[in-house]
Amino acid sequence: MTNDNVLREQALAFRALHVPGRPLVLPNAWDTASARLVEEAGAAAVATTSAGLAWVLGTADGDRLSGGDALAAVARIADAVAVPVSADIETGYADDATGVGDTIRAVLAAGAVGVNIEDGLYGDGAPLRPVAEQATRIAVAREAADAAGVPLFVNARIDTYLRGAGGLDDTLERAAAFLAAGADGVFVPGVVDPVTVKALAEGLEGPLNVLVGPGAPTVAELAALGVARVSAGSAVAEAVHGLVHRAARELLGAGTYGALAGGLDYGNLNGLMSGRRRP
């Protein structure tokens, strides 16, 4: 099977995992080790976290990481696992819609079969990109993937709740425009209360993705509300870096090692990292 055929098959497999009531669960990864651990734990797919990628590559999240650096990391992750990979590409690593198309072609070249494209803006201006402009960027992403013959899953991230820039009606209006432009699913971070999640799931014409962390409803509870995809986002990376911080403070302060208990065995982790996985 050629590489192009592998990519198409993985894209179709990834698309089929988005089932309301039986959600795809994604403990997001940021490097090859975290990706392989997620795969080894039984994940049906691996999704990257832009924040985790930015931190491990030495910069802050929020469109500060270059597209080249981000997609080089995505390529390493895709090469390291056998399951489908979805890339968090922030706002598209491009100033205009044409550039988004270039990014999508680079995503496919990296071996990923899904993307998140967010409508949030960074800086001192408006918190969200205008609906029509964002819809155009999504349409160009769709066209670029279709031209390559790969049914890339385009997940339209809507930051209304995350940025305090709108409620249910605003979110559904944006979602309708983005789905009409070619998005396959809708990601609404910043909301986990069951009433709103249920209203979103029922009001969308596509699968709903929510962001979870401590205090959020369980996967089973979200499934019952009609959610089709559950993402941990940067939460796993945050937990890992929290452990580093606690262990360092304990070692440098008390001179003890309690925080290091429960670590993965060196031999098992080293063995997990041997060889490549992508067929």
Notable characteristics:
single chain; 279 residues; alpha/beta; TIM Barrel; eight-stranded parallel β-sheet; 11 helices; 10% strand
Brief account:
This protein has 279 residues and is an alpha/beta fold. It is 47% helix and 10% strand.
Structural account:
47% of the residues lie in helices and 10% in strands. It has 11 helices and 8 strands. The protein is globular and about 55 Å long. The model has no long low-confidence stretch (mean pLDDT 96).
Which structural class best describes the helix and strand composition?
A: alpha/beta
Strand order of the largest sheet: 1-8-7-6-5-4-3-2
Helix fraction by DSSP (H/I, runs of at least 4): 40-55%
Average pLDDT, all residues: 96
Number of strands: 8
The major beta sheet can be summarized as: 8 strands, parallel
CATH architecture: Alpha-Beta Barrel
Poorly predicted sequence stretches spanning 5 or more consecutive residues: none
Radius of gyration computed on alpha carbons: 19 Å
Number of helices: 11
Global shape: globular
Count of individual domains: 1
